[in-house]
Amino acid sequence: MTKRTRLLVPIIVVLFIALGCFSLVRADTQVQEEIKVFVDTDAAPDDFSALMYLLRHPSVTVIGIGISCGVSYVDRGVSNTLRVLEYLGISNIPVAAGKYTPLVVDHAFPKSWRESSNNSYGLDLPTTSQTPSEMNASELMISLISGAQENVTIVCLGPLTNIAIALEAQPSIKSKIDKIHLMGGAVEVAGNVGPESGGAIPNYVAEWNMWVDPQAADIVFKSGVPITMVSLDATNHVPVTEDFKIRLEGVMVTPEARFVYNATTVGLYFWDPLTAVSLTNPEVVTFEEHHIAIVVDLLNHEGQTNSTGAGSVNAIVAVNADADTFEDLFIGYINGHLPTTPITSTPTTPTSGGPMEPLLIFAVISGVAVVAIGAVVCMRRK
Ligand SMILES: [Ca+2]
């Protein structure tokens, strides 16, 4: 081998390795398309944890937030959400108050739960000078979705009141909604209203969000807008465990991770966080297609989500969940680290490239490099 060849070989090797690494990084950053999201939430601690995941996720852009009449009182929900944004240093996302009561019924979460919103659930949040939108939640939803260049996904973490009002007031926005991705319902499992109210509300078939405003849920499920429903069937598989808290405590470095640590209570479930994670990574749940009908007027069944077994599919329902994968992704993103778990598409949002793409590119380029080096060496020997 000549002196010139000996100099050329390492240069070619370095060049191809650099190209391989560049393609690896480039392919990784192209893993998922941007998802524009409007979040409608009832501003409970697990809502804030889910919101932080969405705000942290590099593929998600939150364009606005509406507050529904759920666990929090609406005005407190608005101020607490603004304080959460202040805590994260975010000041460019509008937050709007929704309707103070359900459309028809007088259902509400237990008063003692709602009053916890008055002191922001004891969570340490800063005060803020940020002010709510002058629009109400439905008006803000209509305005942002109508004005968006791309279609928008609505993530609903509370009762469906504001969304039903928006769909009825401005049906034209339906064509600009990719889907409504919601936490709620119970298909094959029992509801949680009766058990969690200690029997004070004798409804053992409905989930809280659906029970609070069954008429709103009925409107949304009949709207024709694609729905993915993260039901109790799935969330029952992701309890908040002591192990989760210990694991998070051991690695948390971001404000989001510290907040989630303080906001999660062992014995409850990751209702809204599973909903958020299954938006970006649907592989954490198992989906089934259903035609869901909402019970609106049968005593002690209001808000029941019946899979009728007939009619066209109007909802893709998450019926199971992989707790380990969920926890990896949730902790990874809120803690500012890209998880090692491959990112995949949502059912209606195709991705470009899979986890094998960067490896294949690297392998091909490395192979070409080896062949090129061999050829150069052979030529020089001749
Ligand atoms: Ca919620």
Characterization of this structure:
It is globular, with a radius of gyration of 24 Å. Residues 13-30, 340-346 and 348-364 have low confidence and may be disordered. It contains 15 helices and ten strands. Helix 1 runs antiparallel to helix 15 (356-381), helix 2 runs parallel beside helix 13 and helix 5 (137-147) crosses helix 6 (161-169). It has an eight-stranded mixed β-sheet with strand order 3-2-1-4-5-6-10-7, sandwiched between helices. A two-stranded antiparallel ribbon has the order 8-9. 44% of the residues lie in helices and 14% in strands. Helix 3 (74-88) links the parallel strand 2 and strand 3. It is α/β, with parallel strands linked by helices and 382 residues long. It folds into two domains: 1-30 and 359-382; 34-341, Inosine-uridine Nucleoside N-ribohydrolase, Chain A (Alpha-Beta Complex), CATH 3.90.245.10. Calcium ion (CA) is lined by residues 41-42, 44, 47, 70, 157-158, 272.
Write the layout of secondary structure elements.
Layout: H1 3-29, E1 35-41, H2 45-56, E2 60-67, H3 74-88, E3 95-97, H4 111-115, H5 137-147, E4 152-156, H6 161-169, E5 177-183, H7 193-196, H8 208-212, H9 214-221, E6 227-230, H10 232-235, H11 242-251, H12 255-263, H13 271-280, E7 285-290, E8 292-294, E9 305-307, E10 315-321, H14 323-334, H15 356-381
Parallel strand pairs: 1-2, 1-4, 2-3, 4-5, 5-6, 6-10
Antiparallel strand pairs: 7-10, 8-9
Helix pairs in contact: 1-15, 2-12, 2-13, 5-6, 6-9
This protein binds calcium ion (CA).
